[in-house]
């Protein structure tokens, strides 16, 4: 039900940082980031609810931080101490419920994150 616009991907060397941002066209219950490396399944990196509850993949805990601005309908993923294994296409995701009681899930187009060694 909502459109997502992603920004912030790029190329960095190991140990560097990147910040991913995603803007939604409307209010959401939760927003988060998933990633998919070549030949691998898409996996959850981190997500956050409108109330501030967060989930992180074990592989990124302590290095990545997710936050959101409910007024702006945006979510940000701050990625520090990046490793080559973080290389993947990162997808923004948003979930919510319409006034009709129907759940929805929206996806961004994906942004490439490449970490060189």
The pLDDT mean sits at 96
Radius of gyration: 14 Å
Low-confidence stretches: none
- Percent helix: under 10%
The biggest beta sheet is recorded as:
7 strands, mixed
Number of helices: 0
Q: Which secondary structure elements does this structure contain, and how are they paired or packed?
A:
Elements: E1 4-7, E2 10-13, E3 18-24, E4 30-36, E5 43-49, E6 54-56, E7 64-69, E8 74-79, E9 88-97, E10 103-107, E11 111-116
Task: Give a brief rundown of this model.
The chain is an all-beta fold and 117 residues long. It is 0% helix and 56% strand. Strand 4 and strand 5 (43-49) form a beta hairpin.
What does this structure look like?
A hairpin with a 4-residue loop joins strand 5 (43-49) and strand 6 (54-56). The protein has no helices and eleven strands. It is 0% helix and 56% strand. The strands form two sheets. Strands 2, 4, 5, 6, 9, 10 and 11 form a seven-stranded mixed sheet that branches. A four-stranded antiparallel sheet has the order 1-3-8-7, with no helix packed on it. The chain is mainly beta. It has strands at residues 4-7, 10-13, 18-24, 30-36, 43-49, 54-56, 64-69, 74-79, 88-97, 103-107, 111-116. The model has no long low-confidence stretch (mean pLDDT 96). 30% of the residues are buried.
Provide keyphrases for this structure:
117 residues; mainly beta; seven-stranded mixed sheet; four-stranded antiparallel sheet
């Amino acid at each position: 039900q909502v459109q997502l616009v992603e920004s912030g991907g790029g190329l960095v060397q190991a140990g560097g940082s990147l910040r991913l941002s995603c803007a939604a066209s409307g209010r959401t219950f939760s927003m988060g980031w998933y990633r998919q490396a070549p030949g691998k399944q898409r996996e959850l990196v981190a997500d956050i609810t409108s109330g501030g509850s967060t989930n992180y993949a074990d592989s990124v805990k302590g290095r990545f931080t997710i936050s959101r601005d409910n007024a702006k309908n945006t979510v940000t993923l701050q990625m520090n101490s990046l490793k080559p294994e973080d290389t993947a296409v990162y997808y923004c995701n948003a979930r919510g419920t319409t006034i009709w009681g129907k759940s929805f899930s929206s996806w961004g187009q994906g942004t490439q994150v490449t970490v060189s060694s």
